[in-house]
Each structure stands twice: as C-alpha cells, then as structure tokens.
Amino acid sequence: MLYEIRTIRLSLPYRLGSVNCYLIKTDTGYILIDTGCSNKRANLEKELENAGCKPGNLNLIILTHGDFDHTGNAAYISRKFKTKIAIHYDDSGMVEHGNMFWNRKKGNIIIRMIAPILFKYGKSERFEPDLYIEGGFSFSQYGFDAKALHIPGHSKGSIGILTADGDLICGDLLENTEQPDINSIMDDLETANKSIEKLRSLKVNTVYPGHGKPFLMELLLNK
Prior knowledge:
The structure is a single chain. This protein is α/β, with parallel strands linked by helices. The protein is about 25% helix and about 25% strand. The protein has seven helices and 13 strands. The protein has helices spanning about 40-50, 70, 75-80, 90-95, 110-120, 190-200, 215-220; strands at about 5-10, 20-25, 30-35, 60, 85, 130, 145-150, 160-165, 165-170, 175, 180, 205-210, 215. Strands 1-2-3-4-5-6 form a six-stranded mixed sheet. Strand 2 and strand 3 (about 30-35) form a beta hairpin. The longest helix has 12 residues, at about 190-200.
C-alpha cells in the first residue's frame, strides 16, 4: 500500500501560531488526519481541492485528539465530503459537548470559558463521531497500511498513527516549534512520558507533529 503525506499548515486565531493537518494520499483515495480551526476553513478546503481531494474520494477523517484547533472543521468536512470521523472514545465528549476540558483535569475556569470563543467552536462544530478507535486499530480497510497508537498525556484519548514504514503522526504528544520536544501543554505529564517510552520500543523514523515541522525520532531520543 503506497501512500504520500501532505502537510497542511493552518494559522491559529490571534497569532497563536499554527496547527498541522495531514492529508494522506493512498491507492484508493485520501485520509485526512486532523482538521484545524474553523477560522481557516476556506484555506483547508482550498488545500484539499489543490491536492485532488474531493467529495467521493475522502475515505476517512481521523482526529488525533479532541482539541478545537484539531477538530474545528471535522463536522463540516464530514458533511460536505460525506465521510466518517474517527476519534478515541476518551476524547469524544470534547467534540460532542464543545468542552475541551471534558475528561481532563480541571483547568483554569477562565480558559474553560473562553476556549470555544477563542477557537470559534460553536454548536455547528459539535458532532458525534462515527467510529471510536483504540490502540492497535488497523487502517488497512481504508487503503492505509498504518495502525493507531494510544499515546495519552496531552489528553486521555490522544492517539498517534504509525505507518508500516515508520512514519508517526503524533498529534500533540510531541512538537517541533523550536526543537523536537514533548509538547509544552500536558494534562498528565507522567502519562505523557510513559507514552514516549512506548514509542522508544517501536520502529519510528519520522515524526509529524501537530505543531511545527516533521523531524527524525532519533533527534528526540538522543537529547
């Protein structure tokens, strides 16, 4: 199963940086991993169009976790492209209820209140996932030789997608905004470190983070 990974970089509101979506081109169509913020919906649609992704050939939307900067366009793209959305069950309440702190440790009350406004996540962005994926789930039925990894820490339901060739799309467990490192925002740092230890035992070559540029896993492990 051949595949190509295309990085779609979308700006976040209020100059908060950018977030990555990854469009996977396979022999049978496309898979979109994460969808960015709703404020850059037109940019995402243009990127998909330029890549040849259109209604009818987008086989699946995979969400690495429930944060609004990764799920903001999932419901819209799912409706327009007539495709299913997959997420880990432990993060499903975030997108169903529009609450990024659902199933997380209690955060700052002000942040909890402004997050939906900040990321423009209203009722139309909420949805019920079509598919709940656990660690070990195979995407071969969608033409993609890859499996899901449960890598909690940033959130309880964070997953990565590891291909047979050793490419890892890791969501927000790791980042590379300045240098390869563990993400600076963690719900449970101890659990996140255990997830990184899990990666050490696997064949991981190139990491595609939710924020920042792709990097070689050995750069992180050799720090």
